[in-house]
Design a protein that fits this description.
Elements (H helix, E strand, L loop, with lengths): L14 H18 L5 H30 L2 H12 L4 H19 L1 H18 L4 H14 L9 H13 L11 H26 L19 H18 L6 H18 L15 H19 L2 H9 L5 H18 L1 H8 L6 H13 L9 H12 L6 H26 L6
Length: about 425
């Protein structure tokens, strides 16, 4: 008998899910059919599996730390330390976004710091757009200093082992060695965008704000455990230990703590849902497809347009190509495609300048920007893409050449 009930419409998979599945299937076909030979597949896996392991580990750590309220507590401290002066709160937010990007990766800043900062601005009675834009800019431009700051850096750190001169006095693949190579352009990538943002929003950064009420802590022991894990993790990530090991250990500790105190927060499968399946799948698929293209001659074609040498003009050419490629197809495949055209540590850093500092123009230029936009719009903040693109273009045109200049000068101003 007809009861008159109407079946609810089935939820269709999102475009992002469909694209991810297509990418994974195509990559699997490339491997299984031998388009990417087995030896190259194994070499690729040896290089990228530890990188992806770090991504999974640090994502679980930061997600659970956020669930415990760590980022909300920190934002509350910033609100009180700002003494109701908007410019002081602005500087504290800049510091938070910068440190989060450097030590916990750009995706952490985009996904976890952004909503906390936007909510802080709203609760304080301030316009949220300046603070939201600061997090997405710094998620990209502050991601140059350490290997863990960006997935491209982790890949570059492994590549440095093959392009660094044998007579190098410092291990450039270590966190400190990497930082010693990139410190000058990394500093430019932080300072210049902050100056530009401060000038752009100078009127909104005047005056005072109301201090929001303190965030309530649901489970203080979990908050303490999360804080301890993050504090202990930071020095371990720059100690020279393969970064996936401390990240995985921190993830295990927090999963156990949540399983004991708040198992419902872990969802199905004791934390399996916390794994960033989509980003990992996308990255894996891109790794396979680009490697297959490299095996079949893409590197030679790219080298023809990427130039050579370490003069300022040559470094700027490679960085500029990285900027254009990142904003055209996303910074991860852009790095993978252009990596063979580097050939030396200095040129590799020039490429990183392009693909790390450059993705400020198009929404798809980095995964961090896409994730950031999802978080911002979920909080009811409207982003005008026309202004976003124009402001980002100005920032890139100013920041990237200055960063390349800083690299060239710190490297001894080589001519060849």
């Amino acid at each position: 008998m007809n009861t008159g009930s109407v079946d609810a419409p089935r939820k269709r998979p999102s475009t992002a899910v469909i694209l991810t599945l297509v990418l994974v299937v195509v990559a699997a076909v490339v491997v299984l059919t031998g388009i990417l030979p087995l030896a190259d597949s194994l070499a690729l896996a040896d290089r990228v599996v530890p990188v992806l392991g770090f991504v999974v580990g640090i994502t679980i750590v930061t997600e659970l730390a956020a669930e415990a309220g760590l980022f909300s507590v920190v934002s509350g401290w910033l609100a009180r330390w700002g003494r109701r002066r908007v410019w002081m709160l602005w500087l504290f937010v800049i510091v938070l976004a910068t440190l989060s990007t450097i030590f916990l990766s750009l995706d952490t800043t985009a996904v976890l710091v952004t909503p906390v900062v936007v909510l802080l601005a709203l609760d304080a009675g301030l316009p949220p757009v300046p603070f939201a834009l600061a997090t997405v800019w710094l998620a990209n431009t502050a991601s140059l200093l350490l290997p863990i700051s960006n997935l491209t850096n982790l890949l570059a750190a492994t590549e440095l082992a093959s392009v660094a001169p044998d007579a190098a006095t410092i291990d450039l693949t270590s966190p400190l060695g990497f930082a010693s190579l990139v410190w000058a352009p990394a500093l430019v990538g932080i300072v210049v965008p902050v100056i530009l943002l401060s000038l752009l929003f100078r009127r909104q950064l005047r005056g005072t704000y109301r201090v929001p009420e303190r965030a309530s802590v649901v489970d203080r022991p979990l908050l303490v455990v999360s804080a301890v894990v993050v504090v202990v993790l930071l020095p371990l990530l720059v100690s020279g230990i393969p970064v996936w090991i401390p990240a995985a250990a921190g993830a295990v500790v927090l999963v156990i703590a949540f399983a004991w105190r708040r198992p419902a927060a872990l969802g199905v499968g004791l934390g399996v849902g916390l794994v960033p399946w989509s980003p990992v799948a996308i990255a894996s698929g891109l790794f396979v497809l680009v490697e297959a293209l490299q095996v079949h001659g893409l590197g030679a074609a790219v080298s023809a347009v990427a130039g050579s040498g370490s003069s300022f003009a040559a470094l700027l050419q490679l960085a500029g190509l990285g900027v254009v490629s990142a904003n055209g197809i996303n910074n991860l495949p852009a790095y993978l495609v252009l990596e063979p055209a580097a050939g030396s540590p200095v040129r590799l850093v020039a490429l990183l300048i392009g693909v790390n500092l450059g993705p400020l123009v198009t929404p798809w230029a980095s995964l961090a920007t896409l994730l950031w936009h999802e978080k911002v719009t979920a909080q009811g903040v409207s982003i005008r893409w026309g202004r976003f693109v124009f402001a980002g273009l100005v920032a890139v045109v100013v920041t990237v050449p200055l960063a390349v200049l800083a690299l060239w000068l710190s490297a001894g101003a080589p001519q060849m």
